[in-house]
C-alpha cells in the first residue's frame, strides 16, 4: 500500500446507492449466483420478502469488508457462514449452486471491485496508478471477508483484467433471472411509494451496466441518455467532493458502528 492510502477517501455513499443495483445484475449474471439468490431457502434474508433487512445486511457487509478491522470481518464471516451454509441446489434444479463456493464468491468480489473502480472513475475521474493499485489490493476483502482464499484474487490489475474477460464467457442471464432482476430494479419488492423512484433507478442502473449486460437485460440506451448520465455523475461527484468525510461515506460508517454495537451486546449481525 502506498503511504497515506486511506480507503475512506474512496468510499461513496451516493455512488453505492446509485451503482448498487447494476452491481447486483453483474453478480447474478453467473447462473450459479443468480439461481442461488433466487431459490435461497433463507427467507429472512430474501430481498423480495425483506428488502429493508437485506439492504441493511448488504451495506453492513460492504462496510465491514472495506472499513472494518480483522475482528469485525471474522465476526461477520461467521454470521454469514450460517446463512450461506443453507443455500445450495437440490437434485433436479436447473442450475447447480452452493453459496459457500469460493469460485462464485470470487466472481461476486470481482463484480464489487469492478463496480467500485467504475463508480469512482465516473464520478471523480481515474485514479493515479499507485492509488488504483492500492485500491485493487484492498478490494480483495470483498472476497476474503467471506470464503474466498486470498490466493484466488488475481495478483494485480492486469491479471484482474484477464480474469474479467475470461469470466464474461460464463455470463448467462436467462429470462427467469432477468425477470427477477427487473423486479428488484423497479422496486417491486418495496412498498408502493418507493416505486415512484423506479424510472430514475432504471436509468442510472442502465447507465452503470457495461453494454453486454445492458443488452442481456433488454434495457434500452442511447447517446442522449449516455450524455445525461455522464452529466449527472459529474455533478454528483463535484457535490460529493464538497462534503465532509463522515457525510461522504455515510451510511457505511453507520452500519460499521451498528455492527460493533451488535457484537458488543451479542445481537445477530445478519
UniProtKB/TrEMBL annotation:
- Name one matching Pfam family: MPAB_Lcp_cat
What's this protein's name? ER-bound oxygenase mpaB/mpaB'/Rubber oxygenase catalytic domain-containing protein
Q: Name one GO molecular function term.
A: oxidoreductase activity
Could you tell me which InterPro entries the record lists for this protein?
Answer: MPAB/Lcp_cat_dom
Q: PANTHER family in the record, alphabetically? A: BLR2777 PROTEIN, ER-BOUND OXYGENASE MPAB_MPAB'_RUBBER OXYGENASE CATALYTIC DOMAIN-CONTAINING PROTEIN
ER-bound oxygenase mpaB/mpaB'/Rubber oxygenase catalytic domain boundaries: 13-237
Amino acid at each position: 500500500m502506498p503511504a497515506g492510502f486511506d480507503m475512506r477517501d474512496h468510499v461513496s455513499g451516493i455512488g453505492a446507492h446509485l451503482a448498487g443495483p447494476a452491481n447486483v445484475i453483474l453478480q447474478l449474471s453467473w447462473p450459479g449466483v443468480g439461481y442461488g439468490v433466487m431459490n435461497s431457502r433463507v427467507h429472512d434474508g430474501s430481498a423480495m420478502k425483506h428488502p429493508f433487512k437485506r439492504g441493511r445486511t448488504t451495506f453492513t457487509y460492504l462496510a465491514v469488508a472495506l472499513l472494518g478491522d480483522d475482528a469485525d470481518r471474522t465476526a461477520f464471516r461467521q454470521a454469514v457462514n450460517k446463512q450461506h451454509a443453507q443455500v445450495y441446489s437440490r437434485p433436479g434444479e436447473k442450475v447447480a449452486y452452493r453459496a459457500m463456493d469460493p469460485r462464485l464468491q470470487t466472481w461476486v468480489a470481482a463484480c464489487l471491485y469492478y463496480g467500485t473502480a467504475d463508480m469512482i472513475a465516473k464520478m471523480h475521474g481515474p485514479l493515479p496508478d499507485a492509488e488504483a493499485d492500492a485500491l485493487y489490493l484492498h478490494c480483495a476483502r470483498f472476497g476474503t471477508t467471506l470464503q474466498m482464499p486470498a490466493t484466488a484474487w488475481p495478483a494485480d490489475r492486469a491479471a484482474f483484467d484477464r480474469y474479467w474477460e475470461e469470466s464474461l464467457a460464463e455470463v448467462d442471464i436467462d429470462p427467469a433471472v432477468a425477470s427477477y432482476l427487473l423486479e428488484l430494479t423497479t422496486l417491486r419488492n418495496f412498498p408502493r411509494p418507493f416505486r415512484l423512484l423506479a424510472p430514475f433507478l432504471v436509468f442510472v442502473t442502465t447507465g452503470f451496466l457495461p453494454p453486454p449486460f445492458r443488452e442481456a437485460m433488454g434495457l434500452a440506451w442511447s447517446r442522449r441518455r449516455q450524455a445525461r448520465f455522464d452529466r449527472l455523475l459529474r455533478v454528483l461527484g463535484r457535490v460529493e467532493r464538497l462534503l465532509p468525510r463522515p457525510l461522504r461515506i455515510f451510511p457505511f460508517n453507520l452500519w460499521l458502528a451498528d455492527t460493533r454495537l451488535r457484537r458488543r451486546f451479542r445481537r445477530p449481525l445478519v
